């Protein structure tokens, strides 16, 4: 066997390699869709801020329904469902340019989002099952880097194609979607099946001792949707950023992330989940305040990049859960967590779309308040989370127990 063959064989047997490849494919599709969406919606469908808010709410419905993944894994393996989700994502992206109406964009967005959110649910479950706790922050950082590479590739190709050839939106969406479909099928054929060390419980799991994880998940979903729905739209509507500028901005963001994500994962391992979640929320408060008050397009672009880079730190919430969870709860809790994450996400973009029509700055001011609540919750994460030590309340209770 040649050296190349040996490396390929080793790669096939590496579950982290599988997770990184799937993450890159997933974000090639989602990044292509995201890079084109604001301009396509504005130029081809004549979207307003209200319309964009409604679209983003529709995009989040599959995330809200992520708990239904528990039913699918009764009849298929999680890894198989992840592959199928990538194909559905690609189909949704490929169809987008051919339906330049409000209803058409809602329909293709929903299809794309089903694939994206089911994949994310399965990927989170597989990662926390397969990767040991001590290695999780760094591995999640590497996966974040793979996501950034996928995004970087998508944004780079779109920017280059738009500059050199000025293709139609139909062509860009179609090619992007077909790449995802073909890559997802190829990955399924290349890698074997992997299993975690603990058999997962079937059905849904909702436990009182995970309440802080649920609360943090809810808050990150709420504040993230404000940025997702209106961060890029602000740059397009207020500052007139075109397709090439938006693609360049995203290109810069994920070029930074390819280098920064593994290092940020290492920082989580070094400083712990408590300090990391605090720092991430403080950063987001600054970003939202900046969005609310700035009239400078350069500063607005800087805040956009800052949020995109430091969002990687939200993986600290996953490693916090991994440390406090019963290992058999990871798969069933993944779907529950995604649903909780998307409770606010379903209505916030639509409601805030109306607020946008009144005062765009108010949207980001409210986001600052949401991030502040999330920061307060971060103080409840113990320095050394574990089963029985899920919050600082339990840590204090354990500290005052009399000696036996």
From TrEMBL:
Enumerate the Pfam families for this protein: MFS_1
Keyword tags:
Membrane, Transmembrane, Transmembrane helix
- Could you list the residue ranges that cross the membrane? 16-37, 58-75, 81-106, 148-165, 171-191, 211-234, 246-265, 277-293, 333-356, 362-381
| A molecular function (GO) term | transmembrane transporter activity
Which InterPro entries would you find in this protein's record? MFS (IPR011701), MFS_trans_sf (IPR036259)
As recorded in UniProt, coiled-coil segments are none
State the superkingdom: Bacteria
This chain's protein is named MFS transporter
């Amino acid at each position: 066997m040649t050296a190349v063959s040996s490396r390929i064989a080793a790669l096939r047997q590496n579950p982290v390699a599988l997770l990184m490849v799937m993450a890159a494919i997933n974000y090639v599709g989602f990044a292509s869709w995201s890079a084109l969406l604001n301009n396509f919606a504005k130029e081809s469908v004549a979207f307003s801020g209200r319309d964009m808010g409604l679209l983003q709410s529709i995009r989040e419905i599959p995330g809200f329904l992520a708990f239904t993944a528990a039913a699918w894994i009764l009849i298929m393996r999680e890894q198989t469902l992840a592959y199928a989700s990538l194909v559905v994502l690609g189909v949704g992206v490929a169809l987008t340019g051919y339906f330049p109406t409000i209803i058409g964009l809602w329909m293709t967005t929903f299809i794309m989002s089903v694939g994206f959110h089911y994949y994310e649910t399965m990927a989170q479950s597989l990662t926390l099952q397969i990767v040991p706790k001590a290695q999780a922050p760094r591995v999640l950082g590497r996966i974040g880097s793979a996501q950034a590479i996928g995004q970087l590739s998508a944004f780079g190709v779109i920017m280059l194609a738009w500059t050199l050839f000025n293709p139609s939106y139909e062509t860009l969406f179609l090619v992007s979607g077909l790449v995802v479909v073909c890559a997802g099928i190829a990955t399924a054929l290349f890698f074997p099946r992997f299993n975690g060390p603990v058999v997962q419980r079937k059905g849904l799991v909702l436990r009182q001792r995970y309440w802080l994880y649920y609360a943090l998940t809810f808050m990150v979903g709420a504040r993230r949707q404000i940025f997702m729905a209106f961060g890029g739209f602000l740059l397009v509507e207020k500052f007139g950023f075109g397709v090439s500028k938006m693609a360049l901005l995203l290109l810069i963001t994920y070029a930074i992330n390819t280098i920064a994500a593994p290092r940020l994962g290492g920082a989580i391992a070094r400083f712990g989940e408590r300090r990391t979640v605090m720092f991430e929320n403080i950063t987001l408060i600054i970003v939202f305040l900046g969005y609310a008050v700035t009239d400078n397009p350069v500063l607005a672009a800087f805040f956009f990049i800052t949020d995109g880079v430091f969002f990687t730190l939200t993986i600290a919430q996953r490693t916090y859960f991994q440390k406090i969870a019963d290992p058999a709860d990871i798969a069933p809790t993944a779907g529950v967590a995604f649903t909780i994450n998307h409770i606010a996400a379903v209505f916030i973009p639509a409601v805030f779309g109306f607020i946008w029509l009144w005062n765009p700055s108010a949207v980001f001011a409210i986001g600052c308040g949401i991030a502040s609540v999330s920061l307060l919750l971060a103080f409840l994460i113990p320095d050394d989370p574990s089963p029985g030590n899920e919050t600082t309340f339990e840590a204090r209770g354990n500290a005052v127990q009399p000696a036996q």
